[in-house]
Amino acid sequence: MRTALVIGTGLMGTSAALALSARGVDVHLVDHDDSAVRTAAALGAGTAGEPGEQVDLVIVAVPPAHVATTLADAFARGLGRGYLDVASVKGGPRRELEALGCDLTSYIGTHPMAGRERSGPLAATADLFEGRPWVLTPTAETETEVLNLALELVALCRAMPVVMDADAHDRAVALVSHTPHLVSSMVAARLEHAEDTAVRLCGPGILDVTRIAGSAPGMWMDILAANPGPVADVLADLAADLTGAVAALRALQSSDDDKRREGAAGIEDLLRRGNTGRAKVPGKHGAAPKSYEVVAVLIGDQPGELARLFADAGAAGVNIEDVRIEHSTAQQAGLVQLMVEPRTAPTLTAALRERGWALRQ
């Protein structure tokens, strides 16, 4: 791939353009928002404006509702040898293109499983897709050259290709992406009119659950409107679990011992199923999740403290597998939870104590 045209210079389009430009591809940038194009170009993502000749690959990075019409226009104008989109739904846009009578041999639907809470070109990074799955949905009519161009794009962005059927992809993202966002928003919405005294008790649990609720509503409205059926199906199953949980919790309030036991069994079953489901989520490097030992360290809120902590862990020869930070609302301090292999936890604990760190159980 020598040349590419990116249509849509938001988070996804600009990130792909940055990755391609950094690896020597001549990238051209187009967007209905001139300021977004200028910003992306200023960041080094490519050259603003359409190319003077046909490019190797046209990358459409617009909201799902506009994918089909944008691609149809690009097809008609012969802008590229190959075409793909990066929208988060795949079945709907393809059916729209078929209804428009487009020749889809030079097109492949794709979806990089990456993103951020922020949107727009200023949120873009060249490494956004590194190590992330990038779904490709070829069909029997997809030209081999186009599939190869898509695979080259994935490789240049240092992502991991995953081949799926378009409708199977839409059901999958409804389960692992779209429904979780709605549920996160539902939990966060409970805080809208909460008393300040209750909100001050917020800890890492509520922060974890509501993190993605901070995303732009307009963007998510586009995504959910393009995949409503599969999301509704997952929510219906979730609603059944919620109804069961409410009934079980009410039973725990009963004065009848049998009802209380039945309620406890219902809640315990839900929690166990949650454990089983969580254990299926891939861990580091896509492998099965591991159980890590947590070494908790109290650090002050000063510049360089985290760097010093990580440097001391490195000097002890211990690899930090994951990290979480719990901020204190009452003092200028934080609790850093270092996740390490269980066999290395004693070594790290001893080394950090020797270097004067305050450890917590």
UniProtKB/TrEMBL annotation:
Pfam families: PDH_C, PDH_N. It is an enzyme of class 1 (oxidoreductase). Its EC number is 1.3.1.12. Residues 1-19 form the signal peptide. SUPFAM superfamilies: 6-phosphogluconate dehydrogenase C-terminal domain-like (SSF48179), ACT-like (SSF55021), NAD(P)-binding Rossmann-fold domains (SSF51735). It catalyses: prephenate + NAD(+) = 3-(4-hydroxyphenyl)pyruvate + CO2 + NADH. PROSITE patterns: ACT, PDH_ADH. Residues 294-361 form the ACT domain. Pathway: Amino-acid biosynthesis; L-tyrosine biosynthesis; (4-hydroxyphenyl)pyruvate from prephenate (NAD(+) route): step 1/1. One of its GO terms (molecular function) is prephenate dehydrogenase (NAD+) activity. Residues 2-282 form the Prephenate/arogenate dehydrogenase domain. Keywords: Amino-acid biosynthesis, Aromatic amino acid biosynthesis, NAD, Oxidoreductase, Signal, Tyrosine biosynthesis. NCBIfam families: PRK06545.2-1, PRK06545.2-3, PRK06545.2-4. Belongs to the prephenate/arogenate dehydrogenase family. PANTHER family: PREPHENATE DEHYDROGENASE (PTHR21363), PREPHENATE DEHYDROGENASE [NADP(+)] (PTHR21363:SF0). This is Prephenate dehydrogenase.
